[in-house]
Specification:
Helix content is about 40%, strand content about 15%. The protein has about 725 residues and is an alpha+beta fold. The longest helix has about 40 residues, at about 10-50. The protein starts with 8 loop residues before the first helix and ends with a helix.
Length: about 725
């Protein structure tokens, strides 16, 4: 019989322990494998879902710049506007190497080595979160990761977001170069307040372009992104005890600027000598209070208001969007706008309109308002002012370009007289009788003659030559001309020839076309523009505040087209010019107060019969300009103000207009200068007692006087038969 083998107890215990350990190990291996598989599936989900961040079409807001040409022909910044962010696009090729290095070596020293994620920094940041090895949280994000975060707006602080960011950054580096990524980062990085991007920050803090920055300045800017709101040099705090404003940002910026320079030195981006020079340089920051062309309190000029509105309208038309949408695009689209303004003229006119004594001889408790606009003979608006006194804010209502008011007698040259000269209904010396043309029921319900003359309620029945009627601003003669031509014909002529957009169908009537009693009124801008042909050989150009607009990539998207329109025949324009000189130079001219000493001037006053609106349009060989004044809510302009609109014009613009450069209005050889008989208006013969020079077109010359000079009653009767048809 065989003996049973006896097992030692110790061996049995060891075998049991071994089996147990092996089982635990297998369980651990299986568990780890399961967890690893689950994590792999989890992570792969983010890899597959990691969309490519498109940095070529980042929807960023950029500042828009408005430029003017100074007297030396240089383009100067007139105004920078932005709404959501102050940002100016910059190409990486314009960023010097030392500026790039300043940002790279403080934010991501292995930027040119990693593939989007710096695993050494990431692992260090992870350990610090668990073990608190350092005194503060350590950032593990690379420049690529920061760019992803800024572009996507995915900034929730959790593990899933970090995982998405890592894979997005890795994918981004597969499709874009390091220069592409750095350029996008430098354009989007926050630099304090509403300022974003390197170029805007460079201009804001140092008043220079980024390619002009030295090493110390570059390090100062590279210091900001760590905490833009408190490390930017303009950061201030209020002392809780004294209320004093303390410039804390300079100190904060200096502290981190030194860290930037240390990082550049330790990475051999700069030499010891460059380091020492930068450390010891005293930074000079830009003047925060300095503003572009604006009023003393920082409010932008009336011209800037107008060009913003005009470009907004242009963008709305170009893209088929609303005014509000176009305005938002303008403020945030990084456009460059080139304007027509004369900087010195605009500054002077704003100063003149701040002085109430230019508009009133005495101090008024309820002073009227006023506006002004000036343009050249290409339609380029040189200066505009929308109101008297301190400008209340930006982009406010401009009375010169948006208010429609009654033009009064300023309408006569662009309606009845131009039509009559163009259509041979009169000559320089046609004799008219000063008498009404119809009857009306007046405000008192009584039948009365119409029209009255502005300065008298009676009619002297004298005979007046054409130039005298305009010189005196008689209402009766234009009414006779409109009636003869028909109001509709004059209406069509005025609307088409002078591009008046505010006329309505009801204005095709006797009173609107004769004395300016328009249904909607007219803007001062259109009224002034309508006088161009009288000093420009009959030519008309659409008024404009800008020449061209470039988008953020330098493409011209709006460009003003200088289209010459022959509004009047050259002969008509020349004769009208001579007529309007009589308003200034004639012994009874209503515009005598505007007379200049060195420069030829043509012009016309306009006053509504109720004294609600007063205007004067004046033109020299260089400029056409005009003023309006009255009350926003129409009422009579009272005693104390200058009743002569011509005087107000000269008060505010006379110095500029009377430049004395010797320039003359264009000549017209086809207009004949001939002597006419001052008794009959016919060409003077040998028996005429007196004669004077008149101006006539070749196909509308009156016959010679036959020597018969009737007394006044016969003379006025003859006037109706000597008018040329």
């Amino acid at each position: 019989m065989a003996r049973r083998k006896k097992h030692h107890p110790v061996k049995k215990i060891l075998a049991f322990i071994g089996t147990a350990l092996l089982s635990v190990l297998l369980i651990i291996i299986i568990t780890v494998a399961i967890i690893a598989a689950a994590l792999t599936v989890y992570v792969m989900q983010y890899v597959e879902d990691a969309d490519l961040v498109d940095i070529n079409n980042i929807p960023m807001d950029y500042s828009t710049f408005i430029y003017a040409t100074d007297k030396n022909g240089n383009e100067v910044e007139l105004k920078k506007i932005s709404r959501n962010a102050d940002r100016i696009p910059i190409d990486i090729s314009d960023v010097p190497q030392h500026v790039r290095d300043a940002f790279v070596y403080i934010e991501d020293e292995r930027f040119y080595e990693h593939d989007g994620v710096d695993w050494r920094r990431t692992f260090g940041a992870f350990l610090n979160e668990i073990l608190a090895m350092w005194g503060s949280r350590q950032g593990g994000s690379t420049i690529t990761q920061q760019l992803v975060k800024n572009v996507t707006g995915d900034s929730i602080e959790n593990f899933e977001r970090k995982l998405r960011e890592i894979f997005r950054a890795s994918k981004l580096e597969q499709y874009y170069t390091k220069d592409d990524i750095l350029e996008a980062y430098l354009n989007i990085v926050g630099m304090g307040g509403s300022t974003s991007g390197l170029q805007a920050a460079s201009l804001k803090y140092f008043d220079k372009n980024c390619w002009e920055l030295d090493l110390a300045e570059a390090a100062s800017l590279a210091a900001i992104p760590k905490n833009p709101n408190i490390i930017n040099p303009f950061y201030t705090v209020e002392d809780p005890d004294t209320g004093e404003i303390i410039q804390r940002g300079v100190e904060n910026n200096r502290e981190r600027q030194l860290l930037v320079l240390d990082a550049m030195l330790s990475n051999n981006a700069i030499s010891e000598a460059e380091y020492e020079q930068a450390v010891n340089k005293k930074l000079v920051f830009a003047n925060r209070s300095a503003t572009s062309e604006s009023t003393d309190d920082g409010i932008q000029s009336w011209f800037v208001d107008d060009v913003i509105r005009d470009v907004t309208l242009g963008l709305a038309d170009l893209y088929g969007i609303t005014f509000e949408e176009a305005n938002a695009r303008l403020y945030n689209g990084g456009y460059n706008i080139f304007t027509t303004v004369d900087l010195e003229m605009q500054e002077k006119m704003e100063a003149e309109y701040a002085d109430y004594t230019n508009f009133s001889e005495t101090v008024l408790t309820d002073p009227p308002q006023a506006s002004f606009i000036c343009m050249d003979y290409m339609g380029n608006i040189k200066a505009v002012v929308g109101g008297i006194g301190k400008k209340a804010g930006d982009n406010i209502f401009n009375r010169a370009t948006r208010a429609t008011r009654q033009p009064g007698s300023c309408i006569k040259p662009i309606s009845s007289y131009s039509y009559a000269v163009e259509n041979d209904l009169l000559t320089w010396s046609t004799l008219f009788v000063n008498e009404p043309v119809t009857k009306i029921i007046n405000a008192e319900g009584v039948e009365a003659d119409w029209p009255h003359n502005y300065n008298t309620l009676y009619y002297d029945r004298m005979g007046y030559f054409t130039f005298q009627a305009l010189q005196r601003s008689l209402n009766t003669i234009p009414a006779q001309l409109v009636k003869q031509a028909t109001p509709l014909a004059v209406f069509d002529f005025m609307q088409s020839r002078f591009r008046i957009t505010t006329l309505s169908a009801s204005d095709a009537d006797l009173a609107p076309m004769s004395v300016g009693a328009l249904t909607n009124g007219i803007t001062l801008k259109e009224l002034v523009a309508a006088y161009q042909p009288f000093g420009n050989g009959g030519e008309y150009f659409e008024p404009t505040t800008y020449t061209k607009v470039l988008d953020s990539e330098g493409r011209v998207i709006l460009q003003h087209k200088y289209v010459k329109y022959q509004a009047l025949e050259r002969e008509t324009a020349y004769i009208m010019n001579k007529f309007l000189q009589q308003v200034i130079e004639g012994p009874n001219g209503t515009g005598r107060a505007a007379r200049l000493t060195q420069t030829p001037l043509i012009g016309k006053t306009g006053t509504t019969q109720d004294w609600h609106d007063l205007a004067f349009i004046g033109a020299t060989p260089d400029y056409i300009s005009g003023i309006w004044y009255g009350y926003d809510i129409p009422k009579e302009v009272t005693t104390g103000t200058y009743y002569s609109s011509a005087q107000v014009w000269k008060n505010v613009f006379g110095d500029i207009a009377d430049s004395g450069n010797g320039k003359q209005f264009p000549d017209c050889p086809t207009v004949k200068e001939l002597y006419y008989c001052t008794q009959t208006g016919l060409l003077a013969g040998g028996t005429c007692p007196t004669g004077a020079v008149g101006y006539y077109t070749e196909d509308n010359i009156p016959p010679y006087c036959n020597g018969y000079h009737p007394h006044l009653e016969e003379q006025t009767a003859a006037a109706t038969t000597t008018t040329t048809d």
